[in-house]
Amino acid sequence: MALASVQAFQFGEDGKLARDSCLAVHFVFGLLLGVYSACTVLSDEIKNGTASFVLSKPVSREIFFLSKFFGITIVVILFSACAIAASLLGEHASPKLYSSEVLPLAALLCAVVAALVVAGCANYFFDRPFPSTAFTLLLVFMAAAVAMVAALHDPESGRRIHEGRIFMVNTSIQWRLIPAGLLVTMALITLSGVALALAGILDTIPVLIASASLFFAGLLSDYIFGYLGSGSMVAEIGRLFLPNWQYFWLADALTSKGTISASYLVSAAAYAICFLSAILAIGMLLFRHQETK
Amino acid sequence: MMKQTDLTVEVEGLTKVFRDFWMRPRIVAVDGISFKIARGEVFGLLGPNGSGKSTTLKMLLGLLYPTGGRISILGRPPQDGYARAITGYMPEESYLYKYLTARETLMFYASLFNTTAAQRTERVEQLLEMMGLQHSADRRVGEFSKGMTRKVALAQALINDPELLILDEPTSGLDPVACRQVKDLVITLAKRGKTIILASHLLADVEDICSKIAILYDGRVHVEGTVSEMLQDHKHLSITLDSVEPAVLESVLADIKRHTGRRPEVRHPAYTLEDFFVDVVARARNTEATLPAGGQHGTIASFLSHGTEDRASGSQGRRQ
Questions:
Q1: By the CB < 8 Å criterion, does A293 face chain B?
Q2: What domains sit in chain B, N to C, each tagged with a CATH number?
Q3: Relative to the CA of A249, which of A30, A68, B2, B88 has its CA 20 to 30 Å away?
Q4: Contacts of A172 (CB under 8 A, 6+ apart)
């Protein structure tokens, strides 16, 4: 996301390319993280026997499955928090029409380097696990970097927060990226749920292939079921079962100083929750009858 | 005849057929086996590789679903929450989370049972001491040797003070001292009325501790019965005496020959190599001021050993 601020061109609007790049990186890397985590915590655990070890205890398969989902959800949310913070700094640091800011990019890079260095020291001196420590510290340093840049470059932020319209206006720091990032986070959690449901019955590679296929099919959902199969019952059923990722990708809504409304966020969250509930119920049903060796 | 209430495990006509992707039968891993295990028995499942031992254990644990037949653990199906709550399981491979320390691992597995925080802490500390892991308790399991990992796996199987303990190759990877400790533990638990099912290739271990065995081959039980009945040689008799003067011995041998017409064979009974090794290590331990971490084995945890005398009647005990 720091790379988003290193660009030579812009398409007619300040920061559009940086915003789109940051959200795309958030989406793609979040997908990899969510799907890979789902495979690791379920497919791999079934294959290497740790799942059967836990399931030999008085733990119901439904609780085991749901605990894995909530674990992945927390990881995705933490990743998204880092990604959104990095997007805010990356976009703010990108070259604008008349100026380019150095401080946000420096703060972003320093936060990453500091997290890695401190986690390395914690591992060396205190034997703390490096990945989880680095991940947690990255979140802390990233939040600190955003707070520092906001204090220096957008001192009006505090007042706008009080007025409850911080995400709804075009400001020096593009706070309106946060709702767009939240929508991407919802999509990531939804696809992680799909991957987890598949991971209960399939190996890692088939889960990755199926998840990728579902992702691309979901991106084309509007085209396939809206344009090609408009009005037919098959299209309606397909629309029902295939998650439509376009609901969660609103980068274009941010162009021309646009914002994403709170009501849209709520309706997208409701869609994600409904779809997730259905997919998790199917996943639990499949996992209940799955033998663990 | 055993009373129904004395039975901990009852298996009738158990069958497991593994199928391929197209649901065609591929392997008959277990083929209609039946056995009953009473409370306080140490039951050994023997058989060569692929005979169906591990598959049977996994069906007892509810991890695999039988194709046919019935399993009852204290009158309940193996998937039942109560059946799992009273069962401890140590698998052949130690499937532990490598990034957790030994203490965290035991705390995690303890938290899956209905125990209070104080109980968990007490049991975990006792088990760490019993397994000689107190000095390595805060090291990650991924850094452990195979033997130490097996000890953690055994400790977690005991964390709920189980009524039924299922051990798959429990002594695999352990040093002889730890092997002896595991066998002593199994005997102690059996004396407390705990039921133990043990699958092993190490026949000497099975012979030492099992009161009853079943030999599986190709998914079927070929022999089942008590170890003492199966292995007793009724054609011969051995008499063990304290050492006597040669003249007394000659006189006794002459008397026996006069009555039976044959001179009996005389030899000194030998220690087993395991007894000898354990004795050498015990003597060395007494002379050493310090011991390497993980090398010291404590006494059996008090929550596992209390009430031994009260329930001794249910035990079949160690083979003499």
A1: yes
A2: 4-288+299-304 (3.40.50.300)
A3: A68
A4: A92, A153, A154
